[in-house]
Every structure is written in C-alpha cells, then in structure tokens.
Write a structure and sequence with these properties.
The complex is a heterodimer of chains A (about 450) and B (about 160). Chain A is of the alpha+beta class and about 450 residues long. Chain A contains 15 helices and 22 strands. In chain A, the strands form 6 sheets. Chain A has an 8-stranded antiparallel β-sheet with strand order 13-12-9-10-11-14-21-19. A 5-stranded parallel β-sheet of chain A has the order 3-2-1-4-5. A 3-stranded antiparallel β-sheet of chain A has the order 7-6-8. In chain A, helix 7 packs across helix 8. Classes of the chains: A alpha+beta (about 450), B mainly beta (about 160).
C-alpha cells in the first residue's frame, strides 16, 4: 500500500480523496493555487504545497508543478480526482516515468477510451449495442450529410475528444446538418484542440443510464449497479439517482455484464463508468466511457456500501478486488443533487462570491460532500459546485421525501450568490419526476419555466 | 491585506482614529472587489491594498494547518524591502550552471528585468527576472533548495540616490 498520496485536485473531491486516505492510514498531500490557500483540503491534508496562481494552466493543469510537488514531498501516488488531469494520458505517463503511481487506468487504455469515436469502435468490437452512427471520425460535410441521411434525423454530432457535456449538438432536420457539423467541429477545435467529430442517431426520449464498474489489474471486473442521470441541462447532470427504476433484475444484469465486458475488453483497471442510453422500450446502447471517478459516485456508494475512492487506491496499489459480483448487494435508493453557485432563473449562469451563510443539512441517511464553510469564497476561476447532497432511503418515494426535507434545511447565502437549491426543489415537487417519467429532454421541454411562473 | 504605505505625523490620537476608520471600511468591503483604499487625515495617510484572494501579504502563503514550510520561517518584511518571489514551484539555483558564478550576491545592485536566479521544474530552467531595481539585501534560499510558488527568494532594497 502507498505511504503518501498527492491529490491533484481541489474542492469537494480533493477533500473526499483526503478523507479516504486518512481512513486507509495513508498520508495526504494537497496542492493548491493562490485563491485556494484557505481551502478545506489544504486544512485537512497532512501537507500542502502552493503550486501556482488561480489560472489552471499554471496550477492544477501544470504537470511539472504537480509532479514536482509529488517528488519533493515523497508521494508515491497521485490521485487526479475528476476533471483537470484525470483523463490526460500524457500526465499519467509522466507520473509513471517519475516513479509515481497514477491512480487510474493505464495511459494507453485512457487514450483509447478517451477518444469517443475510438471508444465506440472498441465497444462495438466487444459486442456492445450502439446507436446507429459512425465509429470513425467524419471527415467532410458531404460525408456527414450522407451518414445523417442514412441514419435518419434527428442526429447528434459529437466531438470525439469532448467531455463534460460540451462539444455536442443536435441537427433536427436535414437542412441543419451542415451548419451543425461545422459548428461542432469549430467548437471541438477551440475547446478540445481536436476537430474530429462523429455522428449518431439522437434519441429524444432516452434515459442517461450509467453503470459503475471496478476492474483490478488482474482482469477481474464487477459492476455496482447503475445511476440514472437524466435530469440535465445542456448535457450537464444536475440530479443523479440509483438504482434506475426502469431496469428489472434481468435488465440490470444484462447492462451490468455488458459494461464489465466492455471495460475488460480494453484492459481497463480502476473505477470507471460506462454510459448508456436507455430508450423507451428498455433497450440500452453504449454511449461513452468515463475513465475516472465521477462526481456522482456517492450515489453508488450509498446503495452498495462500497467506498469507491478506497477501491481505486487499492486497485492502483496492485491489490486484487476483494469484492466479487455476488458480494454486490444493491439496497434501497439514493439521490444526489448538485448544489451549484448558479442562478437557475438566469440560464444557470455562475454566481461566485463569498458565502456568509453555509449551513448544511444533517439527519438520518443524509450525506453532504462539500469543501465549503462560512466565509469561503466560491471562486470565479473554477467550477461552481458548492456541495453534493446525497440521501438514502429504503425506496425512491422515501428518498425523494428525504431529499426535500434536506434541501429545505440547506442554508447558503452570500452577496450575489444564488444556488440551484430552488431548482432541485421544483424538480422534486414535479409529478413527472415523482413518477420517474423523466427523459434527458425534461428541462428542454420547458418544464422549468412553467414551474417557475 | 497589505499595508502599503504609512507616513506623516505621529499624533497617537489621530493615528488611532484613522486606523479605526480603515478597519471599519475593510469590514464593510468584505466580499467586494475593491482592491485598494486610502484613508487620510491631515498628514496621516493609510493605504490598504487588498488582494482579491486570501493570501498572506508577505508571500508566505503556506497557511494550511499541515502546510510545509520548505523555506526558512518567513520573517516580517523590513520597511521598504521588496520581495522577489518564485514564479513557479521547483528547485532554486543561484547560478546559470553548476560551478558558475552566481547571478547575484548580497549587496549587488540589480536592474529591473535582470536575471537573478533559476527555478527548475522537470528539467526546464526558468529564469527569474527581478521585478524591481534595487540592492540585494538578503537571499533567503540556498542553492538547490526546493521552493513553492510565490515563496520569497530574496529581498531587494532601494538604492539611495
């Protein structure tokens, strides 16, 4: 096992990883940029290193500073969290070259699944069902037009290197195709420095259903149930829950086994997520793979009692999986609401600022993963996540009730700061959500505007 | 927060009042983006520069409970001294290559922009140029020491005309 882990991240996930280290008896090193000098993980970790200014390019994304900090502090492993360098094969390679274990999949595996078009190709080869579309990048707008015509509209055009819900656009009709293709390519080039895009059928009534997998370095893999993340705005998740109420035991087994088969077929090791779309008829198709721990991992932790961060660390330390598929017992229902410093009434625009009040809820089966405290400033330089509120209950109905209770208890205020709490309250109070009849287009259908008025 | 300038009369009553006023102002400005404020009474003037972020003014930003202090414990800066800080994290070198003459010695006068040290990060040599002109008053870090971002490397003092 490792002696000391450097956490190449910030915010709630930095603290989450440091807590896992503490419980495992491993020393932790936080790295921080100037505005994060007073952050929770800096206070909590055993050591902290100032690596750079606010700009991520010179701090949390600056490989020499992070690797330098690890070498100096004698860390034998680096946990990248999510975002930042978590899916950067080049970073993982430099860690390895410097004699530091990168907690995640091997660089070459990361590279393969990180490209969404390549991942489609690989998963098709592993026998996973895909939506009609291309498995290779589309080179020209003529080619795009031909492909879209043969698939049928609407189609979605996605950046192969995309992530975080960015770089994808829907062409609803034939006459929108070329423009959508060109826009997506331009965005892909600007944001991801890779203009490659691919095309697939766009499902209007689909549920974003993702399977959590754990694979060790000896070819063992298990699935830990699924999460439904259909409440999204602009392809960004806001509410996640598990298990999906649209899968029965047989369907759960089928999608879970497909997920593990896909992950093992590419030599994956670590915690990972296989994202699928579940259509109205319960048919699932592979969408993409996330080669990292995800924001919404607590949902799975609550229904399986498995600490996913600790598992990631154990796998990276060459331990074989101690849990078998038969040990995975999904109990009850968990929901996570992302509390962001954003104004839901103003197109979710970020509202950074100092938190004068920060009073998280408590009570039974209520978990808050957050780095915030009264006086903490939500920085305009980084993402707007304030807290993840997760509740567990024996069934979905009771979990919704519990979440409503907890949301009402959550008090956050500060000059100019707005949060997504009112948004969550409106969604949870909506009969469509209660009935579980949500599809990924829920917000686009104008529900929110209606509910707000 | 940084006390930038203090000058003028030393009437203790007045000094006290001005400070009081400044303190109130600072409290009221908390959470705002105002970065500079000045309070003046007679000859006495206080100028406060607030950094937009929470960081110790003397460059010693290692504030975490378990924070490493790799350099010497930060001393309160001497009046008029200007810190030269590390532009990034890495290994500090005083000379362009091993065995070569150091860029500067204590007592040397340097011009703004003059190279005064190297910070090496993953085999990349980053030259540290002086932000100010002045005399090297004190070099705080030893050759080969590891420095954090913004750690004070040396102090310059103004050269009297």
């Amino acid at each position: 096992m490792f002696q000391k882990i450097l956490i190449a991240n910030r915010g709630e996930i930095g603290l989450r990883i440091a807590r896992a280290c503490r419980e495992l008896g491993i020393k932790s090193v936080a790295v921080y940029s100037t505005p994060d000098a007073e952050s929770a993980v800096v206070r909590f970790a055993d050591e902290a290193v100032h690596i750079g200014p606010a700009a991520t390019g010179r701090s949390y994304l600056h490989v020499p500073s992070i690797v330098g900090a690890a070498l100096k502090t004698g860390a034998d492993a680096i946990h990248p969290g999510y975002g930042f360098l978590s899916e950067d094969p080049y970073f993982a390679e430099i860690c390895a070259d410097s004699g530091i274990t990168f907690i995640g999949p091997r660089p070459e595996v990361m590279e393969r699944v990180g490209n969404k078009a390549t991942a489609r190709h690989l998963m098709q080869a592993a026998g996973l069902p895909l939506l009609p579309g291309t498995v290779d990048p589309v080179r020209t707008s003529d080619e795009a037009q031909d492909i879209a015509d043969s698939i049928g509209y609407p189609v979605i055009i996605k950046a192969a290197a995309g992530g975080g819900g960015r770089g994808m656009n829907v062409a609803w009709r034939r006459d929108e195709l070329v423009r959508t293709y060109q826009t997506t390519r331009a965005t892909a080039m600007a944001v991801f420095k890779d203009s490659a895009v691919y095309i697939e059928r766009y499902l209007e009534k689909a549920r974003h259903t993702e399977v959590q997998v754990l694979c060790d370095q000896y070819g063992n893999g298990i699935y830990l149930g699924e999460r439904d993340c259909s409440v999204q705005r602009r392809h960004q998740k806001l509410i996640e829950e598990g298990p999906s109420i649209h899968l029965d035991a047989a369907a759960r087994k089928a999608i879970g086994e497909a997920a593990v088969r896909g992950a093992l077929s590419v030599g994956y090791s670590s915690a990972g997520t296989m994202e699928f779309l579940l259509d109205e008829n319960g048919q699932f198709t592979f969408m993409e793979m996330n080669a990292r721990i995800q924001v919404e991992h607590p949902v799975t932790e609550m229904i399986t009692s498995v600490d996913l961060i600790q598992q990631q660390i154990r796998i990276a330390a060459n331990e074989p999986l101690a849990i078998t598929q038969a040990d995975v017992d999904i109990r009850g229902h968990a929901i996570e609401c992302r509390i962001n410093a954003e104004d839901p009434d103003n197109n979710f625009s970020p509202t950074p600022g100092r938190l004068d009040t920060y009073a998280p809820p408590g009570g039974p089966w209520t978990r808050v993963d957050s780095h915030c405290y009264p006086g903490w400033t939500v920085s305009p330089f980084y993402d707007s996540l304030i807290a993840k509120l997760i509740v567990w209950a024996p069934d979905r109905e009771a979990a919704i009730d519990r979440m409503q209770r907890a949301l009402a208890e959550f008090h956050i205020s500060g000059r100019g700061v707005k949060t997504t709490i009112p948004f969550h309250q409106r969604v949870l109070a909506h009969p469509t959500f209660r009935r579980g009849e949500i599809f990924t287009n829920f917000l686009e259908q104008g529900f929110y505007q209606q509910a707000a008025s | 927060m940084k006390e930038a300038e203090r000058e003028g009369s030393l009437d203790p009553e007045l000094v006290h009042q001005v400070w009081q006023e400044a303190r109130d102002l600072i409290k009221r400005l908390e959470g705002s983006t105002v970065s500079r404020l000045a309070v003046q009474a007679g000859d006495y003037r206080i100028e406060i520069e607030r950094s937009a972020t929470i960081v110790a003014a003397d460059g010693n930003a290692a504030t975490g409970a378990g924070a490493i202090t790799s350099g010497p414990a930060a001393k309160p800066p001497v009046e008029g001294r200007m810190p030269v800080v590390a532009p990034l994290l890495g290994t500090f070198y005083r000379s362009p290559q091993p065995g070569a003459k150091p860029f500067v010695e204590e007592g040397d006068v340097v011009d703004q922009g003059q190279p005064i040290a190297i910070v090496e990060a993953m085999k990349i040599m980053n030259q540290v140029a002086s932000e100010h002109s002045g005399r090297v008053a004190e070099i705080l870090v030893k050759d080969g020491d590891w420095v954090e971002f913004q750690q004070v490397l040396m102090y310059l003092e103004p050269v009297e005309a």
